[in-house]
């Protein structure tokens, strides 16, 4: 048995599906999955129904979350062309702003340059802007980071050309960061064929050469591992028009520990990618008396059976991984051990805890 201790992990990209998608996930099931995966802090995306694009809808979502979350959770506001004038008022309820520049699941999309400009002008300077940008659109995000001289974070970077452009932007000192999802590190377009709708997500699974490029940048350009936990029910996935997205909260750490086991990155680098860097980039303070214990040698086959996510399936099912979460302690409280979640709903805290927390009075 090889016991290792990590700080509480942070997943900056999850979809909790409340409001409007509770058949896929809710705050209670989603944060149970988070704890089982070693995450004590998660950020929830705004592509809900309605989307989280007004102070009113964000406040309502926070009210729904406060008694349900088992780990700490912050929200993204979603840039919505129809409600763009309300952006500044959203900020106090959130950790960051999300802008969708490409087609994906949900109602949010920004297509006009004027809307993008408004985002960069109205969103408070102290809070991050994150983007779903694919292919050449990554260059749009880099351009905006340069022009407005403020940080831009790229979600789920998946292709060689994208990671290389971000590497060049960083070399020139531009304030850009990026995350990579485990499905883009461990699966390819060949798996997508095998998996059918369960292998469909945005950005889609890429070529082996893209996967190779992501691993080549794992110690340099990649800032965070983020799951893009995007659960959909099996019924939805097996329908004639399956929505894109796959769950990932419970499989991300075991997969990354397997990469450490296989010598593809160091344990210290894993901790940077899954805890230190996301905390620094998103300005999230450390949780006291919080840690994750793993058995780095335990071998398991990922299965749909033992999952806490409401969707009940994984694109990684059948894969053998080295590394299992044994215990999670959050602020001195035992919240997960040996397959059981002990944190009752309401254990988690909202980020920021009060919308007025960061205001100077
Ligand atoms: C996400 C979802 O289902 O909300 N789907 C996905 O394929 N990644 C949306 C997103 O993150 O782009
Ligand atoms: Zn996305
Ligand atoms: Zn997502
Ligand atoms: Zn081994």
Provide structural commentary:
- With 361 residues, this protein is of the alpha/beta class.
- Helices cover 30% and strands 21% of the residues.
- The chain is built from twelve helices and 14 strands.
- It has helices at 27-36, 55-66, 87-90, 113-122, 137-148, 160-171, 182-186, 189-195, 208-216, 234-237, 252-261, 267-281, and strands spanning 3-7, 9-14, 39-44, 72-78, 96-100, 128-132, 152-154, 176-180, 224-225, 291-301, 320-330, 333-337, 340-341, 350-351.
- Strands 2, 3, 4, 5, 6, 7, 8, 9 and 14 form a nine-stranded parallel sheet that branches. A five-stranded antiparallel sheet has the order 1-10-11-12-13.
- Helix 6 (160-171) packs parallel to helix 9 (208-216).
- It binds N-carbamoyl-L-aspartate and zinc ion (3 copies).
- N-carbamoyl-L-aspartate (NCD) binds at residues 15, 47, 104-106, 132, 201-202, 228, 230, 243-245.
Number of strands: 14
Task: Give the % helix.
Answer: 25-40%
Structural class: alpha/beta
Give the end-to-end Cα distance, rounded to a whole number of Å: 52 Å
Radius of gyration: 19 Å
Strand content: 15-25%
In this structure, how is the largest beta sheet organized?
9 strands, parallel
Tally of contiguous helical segments:
12
Bound molecules: N-carbamoyl-L-aspartate, zinc ion
Which residues form runs of ≥5 with pLDDT under 50? none
What best-fitting shape do the alpha-carbon axes yield? globular
Average per-residue pLDDT, rounded, comes to 97
Order of helices and strands: EEHEHEHEHEHEHEHHHEHHHEEEEE
């Amino acid at each position: 048995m090889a016991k290792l201790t990590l700080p509480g992990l942070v997943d900056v990209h999850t979809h909790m599906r409340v409001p409007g998608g509770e058949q896929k996930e809710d705050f209670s099931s989603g944060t149970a999955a988070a704890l089982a995966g070693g995450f004590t802090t998660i950020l929830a995306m705004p592509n809900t129904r309605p989307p989280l694009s007004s102070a009113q809808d964000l406040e309502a979502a926070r009210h729904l979350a406060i008694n349900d979350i088992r780990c700490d959770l912050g929200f993204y506001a979603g840039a919505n062309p129809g409600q763009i004038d309300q952006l500044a008022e959203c900020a106090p309820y959130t950790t960051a702003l999300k802008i969708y520049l490409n087609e994906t699941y949900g109602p949010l999309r920004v297509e006009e340059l004027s809307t993008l400009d408004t985002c960069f002008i109205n969103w408070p300077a102290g809070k991050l802007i994150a983007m779903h940008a694919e292919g050449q659109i990554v260059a749009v995000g880099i351009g905006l980071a340069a022009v407005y001289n403020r940080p831009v974070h790229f979600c789920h970077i998946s292709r060689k050309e994208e990671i290389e452009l971000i590497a060049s932007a960083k070399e020139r000192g531009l304030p850009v960061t990026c995350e990579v999802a485990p499905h883009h590190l461990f699966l390819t377009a060949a798996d997508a064929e095998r998996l059918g709708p369960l292998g469909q997500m945005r950005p889609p699974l890429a070529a082996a050469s893209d996967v190779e490029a992501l691993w080549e940048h794992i110690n340099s350009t990649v800032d965070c591992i983020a799951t893009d936990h995007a659960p959909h029910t099996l019924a939805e996935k097996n329908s004639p028009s399956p929505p894109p997205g796959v769950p990932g909260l419970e499989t991300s750490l075991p997969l990354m520990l397997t990469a450490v086991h296989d010598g593809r990155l160091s344990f210290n680098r894993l901790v940077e990618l899954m805890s230190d860097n996301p905390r620094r980039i998103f300005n999230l303070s450390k949780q006291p008396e919080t840690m994750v214990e793993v058995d780095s040698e335990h071998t398991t086959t990922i299965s749909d059976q033992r999952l806490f996510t409401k969707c009940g399936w994984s694109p990684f099912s059948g894969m053998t991984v080295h590394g299992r979460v044994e215990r999670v302690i959050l602020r001195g409280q035992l919240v997960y051990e040996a397959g059981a979640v002990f944190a009752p709903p309401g254990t988690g805290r909202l980020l920021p805890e009060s919308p007025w927390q960061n205001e100077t009075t």
